[in-house]
Design a protein that fits this description.
Number of domains: 1
CATH architecture: 3-Layer(aba) Sandwich
Radius of gyration: 18 Å
Helix content: 40-55%
Shape: globular
Structural class: alpha+beta
Number of helices: 7
CATH superfamily: NADH Oxidase
Order of helices and strands: HEHEHHEHHEHE
């Protein structure tokens, strides 16, 4: 498939079933390839992922629920709970992290660029998220990108034995979509792109 068509296919999908059109090992291989091949500044390779399935996936969304119950008033919690149930109903979740020890090591090696490495790490992580999301879309797997960090950071680190230097960036629930993506609107391209000669 043409890459630009794959980009169009990659959409936020919230109605996801607890099943996959391909095997779990094939999904893991797709993610591994994206982790390995996604570029990063100075080839720092600071992005990290943890693939959660089955009980681990369900436990993540229980942790999110417990964290949100502490900050969302009970009388307003029902819509939040419905959203979390939809994420938990998916097949699995990919957790994205930046390894800050790697970022710090490159800051020390290249002090001239010290202030830029955290931003470059974020850019590399964003490229990884996009690569995984698009690659999953190619094989008929839907996903969305969530950001419950830093509210859940400590609980996630404890439950999933996350190294101290890993900073949680995003959560990506995924599974087989059973409803179409919501319509998407676009800002006019003239406001977003220019060609100069």
């Amino acid at each position: 498939m043409v890459f630009t068509e794959l980009i169009r296919r990659r959409r936020s999908r919230y109605s996801l079933a607890d099943q996959l059109p391909i095997s779990q090992s094939e999904v893991a291989k797709i993610i591994e390839d994206c982790v390995k091949q996604t570029p990063s500044a100075f080839n720092s390779q600071s992005a990290r992922v943890v693939l959660l399935e089955a009980a681990a996936h369900e436990q993540l969304w229980q942790l999110v629920k417990e964290a949100l119950q502490k900050v969302v008033p009970a009388e307003n919690f029902a819509p939040t709970e419905e959203k979390l149930k939809a994420f938990a109903a998916a097949y699995g979740t990919i957790l994205y992290f930046d390894d800050e020890t790697v970022v710090q090591s490159f800051q020390e090696k290249f002090p001239l660029y010290r202030e830029h490495f955290p931003q470059w790490a974020q850019q590399a992580n964003g490229m990884l998220q996009f690569a995984v999301w698009t690659a999953l879309a190619e094989v008929g797997i839907g996903a969305s990108l969530q950001h419950y960090n830093p509210l859940i950071d400590a609980a996630v680190a404890e439950r999933f034995h996350i190294p101290a230097g890993w900073k949680l960036v995003a959560q990506m629930p995924f599974g087989t979509p059973y409803a179409p993506a919501q319509p998407k609107t676009f800002v006019p391209l003239a406001q977003r792109m220019r060609v100069e000669k």
